[in-house]
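Deviations from the work plan: none for this task. Representative record:
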Amino acid sequence: MIRARKFITIGVGLAWSISGAVTWAAAPEATPSPIASATATNQSVPDWVSQAKLPVPKIEKLANGLEVVWFVDPTLPVVDLALMIKSGNRDDAAGKTGTVQLLSSVLDRGAAGMTSQQIARAVDSLGASRYVSAEDDTITVGMHGLSEDAERLLELLGKITREPTFPDTEVKQESSRILDRWRHVADTSQSLVSLVFHRLVCASTPYSRGGFLGIQEFSRVARADVVAFHQHHFVPSNAVLMVVGRVDPASFRKLIEARFGSWQGKAPKRTIVKLAHAKLFPPKGAGVVVGRPELTQAQIRMGFQAPLISSPDHYPLLVANTILGGFFQSKLNAKIRDEMGLTYGINSIFSYSRELGAFSINTSTQNETVGKVIKRTRELFQATIKGEVTEEEVRQAREYLVGGFPIEMGTLGAVASRWLAGYIHELGPEYLNEFIPRVNAVTLAQVKAAMKKHFMGKELLIVVGGDTAEINKSLAAEKLPKFKPVRAADLL
Amino acid sequence: MRTSPWNWRFLTLVLFAFLATIPLATPGKLGVQLKLEKHTLSNGLTVYFVENHAVPIISYQTWFRVGSADEKLGSTGIAHLFEHLMFKGTEKYPAKSFFTHLEAKGAEVNAFTTRDYTAYYANITPGLLEKTIDLESDRMANLKLDEAALLSERQVVLEERRLRTDNSPSGRMQEALWQMAFQAHPYQWPIIGYPEDLFRLTVKDLQDFFKRHYAPKNAAIVVVGDIQSEPTLALIRKYYEKIPAGEVPARDIPKEPEQSSERRLQMTDHVASEQFSWGYHVSSAQDDDSYALDVLANILFQGTSSRAHRLIVEQKNVALSVNGMAFTPTFPGLFIMSAMMKGDRPAAEAEALLAEVIREVQKKGVTEEEVQVAVKQLTVMLIDSVRTPQGLANLLGTVHAILGDARRYNEDLEKYLKIKPADVKRVANEYLHPNNRTVVVLKKAKATGDAK
């Protein structure tokens, strides 16, 4: 999933770690230099910010259907190359959940006559880094290094993505490592609680299985499944190649043509699997507790399915979320942390996959105060969606979102990663430049209407991880029902 | 807000490596233009500027040379708790003012405390510059401290401690490692402090702490980004110069005696596999050995083709991960190495292999090519680290806090250029011997109740 706070950001795997600074091209007739206007007027968001234009990439399509997206900028001597496949965890075959995870682990462990260590050394010796990342809707293979090594990095990217050999020993070793890493999900209540919350929120959607459903099912995933997935999904018409940073487009385009021009394959057919996770769901009005009696602090997640990022109500909802839990002085943080001292932090956030939006409130507190935090959070949430929002709060939220925009978009890497997220969600090539005007146009009435339409009457799914006995005592003290217990071992 | 044991040397290393390894290139050609200005106000406040108009962002940072190393047993955690209280307001700007005046307009406002220093930052658009200067100078002079703020923020800090340490297997291990490795020096206690000490702190303690450490002479302002230095300096003079200078408090810090035998602790937690951390006493940032130690750390642990990863994770397949870094702060620090075991493999297996990797370097040394590769890897990381105004301001602030002058960010260049394989071998032999090592092993706890 991608996360939305001020804006949308892309998941870990698509994190473009670097590139040059963004050139903020002021709109025609935009005026004084930033510092002059700013210091003279002490105006927080000067006109030039709202008039400024972010770079929009050049997009082209090779004859085989591969799209190439160019964010060229000579400012810094570095380059990011990423090949994104428009298939992800949700495309695992039925009964084979975890195939994409395994594929992403073994993709760079043998390719085009090179062994795993030869590939690793080839990249490391350039001072470069590589990653393969599997998300709900995408798999991304990336290289990051000095521009002087861009040709070699492209060559390695081509080998890894087009000619992986998936050596049997490497597949077995990685499969075993994935199982071992998976068992660590129960090491902290943060990861356990997030897992249960994900399964409840995504139930009966294409994302219900996540990247990993359980040890038993993963044990059935074999090398042949990985090879088949690669054959069907790693095809040019299902891929986007992104070039960010300092390159000479003319000569680099020739290199891309040489490495990827001969790539062929038909668009993949997709199978969609939806699970209900019925055993996890709590009775109405209650929540789920994952027992960890040795812990002194409980993790809490609350939320439900929300509209897609492409919803016409997206911007009013973004403003609503900012007011509720989107920044430090939001209603939730001001009350639960700043006034009551019950937590180190509490926030609310939207997350988006292509076909699913989710809203969540996230916090932690002592086991003994879980009931108090849940009760107060629910009250604040209900009051907010019933309309306890003022014109001033909407103005402040808008200002926060708009004023933070230049800071969020401060590097070309940040622009490129947000742009790519928008591309996956089919928001159009110019959508980044729509952000400020769309936020500025949000009214109090729109915020109230959007919350009424999308939040009203929805039950908050609640998942807590910690000491069950203490948590239930704290719930009873607030006259809340006991939560349904879930064993960590049953989730693995 | 957050605690951060920042590895300043690592950051400086990458800067120098970057400049050193690209022949004929100038920083300007590479897009890293550091025209650093330094000013000292009449009250002793140091001010640094780097103008960069590429993006309409400014990072405004205030660095105080005070951290948990300045605490005493019995009042641990005061530096970090105080950092939280710096957001609780003054007569002119009451609590939440940083958020209503800055964050509400899009700024990123936060702070962090380390063992050696404390830093406050605001990443802002240019229109917020004067308000930021007003707010920061006002709290440096006029912070209000009261019982109510102390009580509520202490609760928040205790929740932070439960989150980062008490309920975190790796947090518990790191706390134990520093506690055991240092027996005289204040690096032994955690930055966040012990709960019993936090409960003991009074408003008077905090007022004394404020008076002693939060004064212009003990601070530096670092401003990087879309500014014009002349008018910005005029604004800083206008708001700060009236604040009394204060003093640079003497650091009366006991020296850590030489460790004479290995120290070892076994802990348990509800984890899927065993883990361990090693800590070897190493030099401070001021000591030239820190450069060779950085290169050594890189050769051993950076990337999946590094020596330790290759042997322990790839060839022997006994651990899921192995990591290490030389932490060389203001006072002599620790070279920390950690591994997470695979399945039911005992930590002892990876410990033996890690010892083998180290012995190999001690006996046979490293190659010229390994040193060069390490430097190139760090080159890219440098560009990453200074690509934003915040990243660059962090670097300059750290160098100032540790070496006393941010302009020294570039004087070590030759020292890195001179690192030879023999230097790496020498520091491996000098520091990485078992008697100088502290070990924390985390074993799996038996499942209890509804745990697993």
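The CA atoms of residues 3 and 113 of chain B lie 5 Å apart.
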